[in-house]
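Forum: Protein Structure Q&A
Topic: Joint prediction for protein chains with partners

I've read a bunch of threads here and the consensus seems to be that you should model interacting components together rather than docking separate models afterwards. I'd like to see that in practice. Below is the full input, 403 residues plus whatever partners are listed. Could one of the regulars post the assembled result?
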Amino acid sequence: MIKKITLIGMLIFMLFVFSSNISWLEDNIDTTTKDYYIENSLYETGSRNIVTGIYLDYRLFDSIFETSLLLITVSGITFMYKKDDPTL
Amino acid sequence: METVVLANFIQVLLIIITIALVANKNNTVVAILFSVSSLFLALLYFFNKAPDVALAEIAVGSAIMPLILIISISKQREYVVITHVKDDFVNSLTGEGRKVLQDFADSNNLELKIYDRDIDNIKGIFRERNVDLIIDRSDDNKIYYLRGKKSSLLISKLENKVKNLENIKIIKEEEVETND
Amino acid sequence: MKNSQILVCISRVLFPFVLVFGFYVIVNGHLTPGGGFQGGAILATAILITYFIIPERINIIDGLVRLEKHLFLWIIVVGSLSLITKGTFFTNPLPIPAAISFKRIFLVLLNFLIGSKVAIGLVAIFSSFIEEGRS
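Posted by a regular:
Agreed with the consensus. Here's the joint model:
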């Protein structure tokens, strides 16, 4: 019972903190990066879709290691799948 | 204006589906509810002007993840038994142990699978190979030992079931700690 | 494993459309929403549908993982091409004042490589899961 009351109290506190932060964020948005991408991404990367321009040109380093993450996952899963074969 | 109303409606629906997802005990229903909730989440992404994320969410969240969940659930429905005994105890359909195990598996809605291969390293086998029961026999007298995980609920049920039979004895083994 | 006739019939109709949509999302990644990962996931879903049509054993998982490793190497090679022309890693190898239609070749090529790699990886994941559930 005490656990539940504490949990609900914490959730209400977090809701209060998040909602107050959201109203604070609405007045203080920094738009320099967004404006830079909207103005220059077609000229610099040749992509009409700004998301593609970002993840294949400005942030290609991140994308390549994100694909390596999938490769490591697949290698692990196939390793665990093959481990069962010889005995059972 | 209409999309805002629709987005709010989807948010409320998503909260209801998520509560149902957490509260539900049936695994298959959980897999289907997961798929439905990820569909509505993709719709919400689309209304909030993120169609990239919506595409990825639809493909991964509502097609591939439920498949993996359902395969894992169907794997859970098997009762894997390894036998080291060569006589008719479990190997023939009319054996005494086979009848008991089949009865037990049917009453718990499981699928019985019996393998009679030798495995050298018994330690840690329950955890790694997903084996539920191992059958051994003592040489001098006619007692069959069924060895299973101590933490499993099924082994307690099986122990209750074979309490009256004299030639079957149940040994509960502690799980071996693995390093991974 | 025997599937119902309705599921098989609808899967046969649906499969080519999903396949074409996946390729469309990959190839038009620089124009419309989508791109490598999204298109690859849709392609993997299309290949998942074929398991409903023909439930057979799959024993090409090793080959899939090997192909994925080769594709990852190719992605790194294509991404590092800018080391020769510009002197820095991981950006477009063509200079900034070049024509837009030439710079798009790099984007389409990289999108295609990433899309095929993601599709092969997801196919390998759920193939091994299907095989594990079937044994």
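The mean pLDDT of chain A is 85.
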